[in-house]
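Look over this record as teaching material.
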Amino acid sequence: MLHDCIEPLGLTITGAAAALGVTRTTLSELVNERRGISPEMAVRLSKVFGGTAESWLIQQAQYDLTRVSTDRFKQLRRIEAA
């Protein structure tokens, strides 16, 4: 998702990291899906690329949920009142 913000502006990872006030490594890990968007990073992203911090966090939550394998949870059942 961050590629869509960085590339159209003609920024490099290094340039975008500088604009965000983070290290190149931090942004690279985020772009390459080895790190998630924290609330602090969401604020930084909203200030630099637009949108709201909430919208960045929602995107992260949606991504996290898609990565969860529902097969792992098939054995779980809702508890019914006695």
